[in-house]
Sequence to fold (470 residues):
Amino acid sequence: MFDILKFFVLHAVFIITALIFSVYLILTVFSAISLRKYLRKNSYVDYNSIVSSPLAPTLSVIAPAFNESRTILDNIRTLLSLYYNNYEVIVVNDGSSDDSLEKMIETYELEKVNYYFDYRLPCKRIRGVYKSQNRSFKKLTVIDKVNGGKADSLNAGLNVSKNELVVSIDADSIMEPDALLKLVKPFTESKEKKVIGAGGVIRIANSCEISGGHIKKVHLPKKFLPRAQVMEYTRAFLMGRMAWSELDGLLLISGALGMFNREIVIQSGGYRTDTVGEDMELVVRMRRYMVDNNMSYDVVYIPDPLCWTEVPSTLKVLARQRSRWTRGTLETLIIHRKLLFNRRYGKLGMLGYPYWLMFEYLAPIIEFLGILWFIFLVISGKLNWPFFLLLFGFVYFFAVSLSIWSVLFEEVTFHKYEKRRDVFRLIGTAFLEPIFYHPLIMLMSIKGNIDKLFKRNTWGRMERKGFDKS
Fold:
């Protein structure tokens, strides 16, 4: 009986391994094709024409803020200096218990105004809308509301905004000066399909030189944990989401930066406040809304580095983040389970959803069970060591190869790490990541499932160390 079980397990491991390799190779090819198309298409683009055009869409940049006193002023300064003509900045103070609101009122000469808006989307009570008395800050609007979380704050911003497109951004993120121009471009080009959302590459600001809310010098993080996340983000954005955008199966636009058609967001119901993965869930729901209403649409991914954010530099904070990501993914997959292999939803149902279910959600669970099986075989003395070592070496070097390919994609495209030493350190990280970082991420994913099982659905406070300390 044991031999039969062992036979099926070993064959299952081989089949799953072959499937994973095949899928990632296909995604790498599609990512390379998509990157080449983008670079060729945009090599001679004059973004100044968008700024000067009277037909350029109007934008509302919505930044939820909760207890961001340390960085809120620099971040607002960055948002107000973005290179775009017709846009407003809406900062949503989500019931902060620190002096964030007081700092904004004093620095930007804010006063409460009578501002008409409809509660088209449900959100906590808005206590006041503030505008600056100084004409230099006329683009700035500050909303003070009862605490309700990020999704609730974004809904409040959507209620107050009046423009065609909305940009959701974390208040502690730093946008590139031309980020809006690059994000809005697909919305101005599309004729046959209605672009409902666009996202861009999120880069890691730990250890970078920052002054006045702007990235002055890009450095690779000094600590291993943030550096491993640089490797992970580079691989995920340039080789994962780039490919899924090309395949029309993109399920996620990062909550750190995304541009959306405001009316479609509202018609879809806005952000759900009962999930911790509101960014992913909204994109999937918007896509379902468009299909259910027989409207041709597109969700676009921009490979340009458009936004910089601080990532966790301690295991404690990283575990909170990854637990939340796992719970958010599971919630979205359950809510939209109707998509699975549903031809009505095209590539979203036939490719995107199954991939996310198998490779983003179930993969860590399968891997964890595989490790338990390995431990059992070692203890029982029944492990086929030559087969195991061959398989382990093959998987390890395949993972390293993917990471090195992502570094190569970065270097031949946007080349943000100018120092040769940083590039070599990143390649070195690619060799260390599968052994020292990936197992931790797997265990944090398992913890996220346990947290969900026992209904521990808190957001988890994300403590910031400061961009210059990690």
Summary: The first strand starts at residue 59 and ends at 65.
